[in-house]
Amino acid sequence: MPPMMPQADRRGLAVRLAERIAREGPLDFAEFMRACLYDPDAGYYAAGSSPFGAGGDFITAPELTPLFGRSLARLLAPALKRLRRPLLRELGPGSGALIAALLPALEALEALPERVELVEPSRARREEQRARLAALPASLAARLVWTERPELTTAEGVVVANEVLDALPVRRFLLSEEGLFALAVDFDGRRFRWRPVPADSALARAVEDLLARLPEPLPRPYTSELCPGLADFLRIALAGIEKGAALFIDYGYPRREYYHPLRRMGTLVAHRGHRPSPDPLSDPGAQDLSAFVDFSALAEALEALDWAPVGFLSQAECLIGAGLLEELAALPARGGEYHAAAAAVKRLILPGEMGERFRVLLAAREMSAPFPQWPGAAAGLERL
Ligand SMILES: C[S@@+](CC[C@H](N)C(=O)[O-])C[C@H]1O[C@@H](n2cnc3c(N)ncnc32)[C@H](O)[C@@H]1O
Residue 83 in contact with residue 156, Cβ under 8 Å? Predict the structure, then answer.
């Protein structure tokens, strides 16, 4: 009897994935994740309604409060003022909330970039961003340009990415007593299931390289992730910027914490309706999939592209250093706006919330001290 396929009318993506697996055999998880997030017709980020904010599946820092963007404006203003006709490039701008807060604040700090490039592969998200940013004053809106892929023309500029690297497809591996396996995705006629398959040579090399860099051997069985597309993503994301600064904010760890012997099930998470969802393989395209970021790998990939990591901090350290609390104090103390902002600030900086789990990597190219707020930020790089 042929396997029972999911209903095509409701679950076109699941049907296509199941058919592909029936034809080609188990699908590497990175391919499955890419389809779930970015399939042009049904991918989580590519298709229809917005996943961001209270009505979506998760709330990111810029969605929580405009004070996040205003603090980043304070952080980026010194570098933007020193650059010639600067470009501000945001990778994966989501709903547009960060730019909506950042640009007016940069204007107030007299550090407006000449051009603002929003790099967004998804058409639905680009439309969402356009609608949101239409509310900006015309003098600011005129600076915005959208692109699926950054332009190669050379420029001086600043690059910002909040919660983008965690959305890059990852490969999953299993180290067991029997050897190294790739965790692929199979379809049993009813559900998608994990299927270990012998590691191919690219995965074997990558895991061997990883193990050589860890301070202690990993226990077995041990499952985790690698992001093979990181270097390519950065090469494209930073293209054309010959002088400037970059800021990556995400949940993640330095390598030795990421691949800690106790973290035996990796960092892959699925989210739906503001809750972690138990099965990352269920309902392709209907739930968010993400993995924590290996900040040591990020720093090395930046160095390989001639970008120098200049600081590594927790989100709390970064935002407090940038002036988040001063931004809060500047709000009228009695209004509802103040109370909402104070609650959001707590979420951004408390260690049990986003304050410690989210980390910030600062980088520079051909520019000394682009972030003068943290003369000591480079000390954090020793942890990578
Ligand atoms: C978790 S959301 C974060 C959105 C936003 N930065 C925020 O903080 O609210 C990830 C975003 O990255 C975008 N994205 C995914 N791959 C990308 C790529 N290769 N280049 C630029 N953006 C990408 C997705 O479309 C999505 O808008």
Answer: yes
Ligand 1 centroid–CA 153 distance in Å is 22
Q: State in Å: Cα 121 to ligand 1 middle.
A: 8
Contacts of 285 (CB under 8 A, 6+ apart): 13, 14, 35, 36, 39, 42, 43, 44, 47
CATH architecture observed for domain 61-167+230-260+292-383: 3-Layer(aba) Sandwich (3.40)
The CA distances from residue 89 to 102, 111, 237, in Å, are 12, 14, 9
- Vertex 288 angle, CA 254 and 258, to 5°: 15
Whose C-alpha lies nearest to ligand 1, atom 1?
Answer: 163
**Per-block mean pLDDT, blocks of 10 residues, the chain (384 long):** 38 92 98 94 81 74 97 97 97 97 98 97 92 97 96 90 98 98 97 98 98 97 98 97 98 98 97 87 94 98 98 96 96 86 96 95 96 82 95
Which amino acid is located at 63 in the chain?
Answer: E
Q: Count Cα neighbours of 106 within 13 Å in the Cβ-side half-sphere.
A: 29
By C-alpha distance, which of 229, 232, 248, 230 is closest to 364?
Answer: 248
Ligand 1-lining residues (CB < 6 angstroms): 45, 52, 60, 62-63, 91-94, 97, 119-122, 125, 162-164, 167, 233
What pLDDT does residue 334 have?
A: 77
pTM for the model: 0.95
- pLDDT for the residue numbered 193: 98
Within 13 Å, how many C-alpha atoms sit on residue 121's CB side? 16
> Rounded to 10 degrees, what is the CA torsion of 194, 260, 274, 228?
-60
Q: Which of 68, 164, 360 should be mutated for ligand 1, with most atoms under 8 A from CB?
A: 164
Residue 105 CB: number of other CB atoms within 10 A?
20
Radius of gyration, alpha carbons of the chain: 21
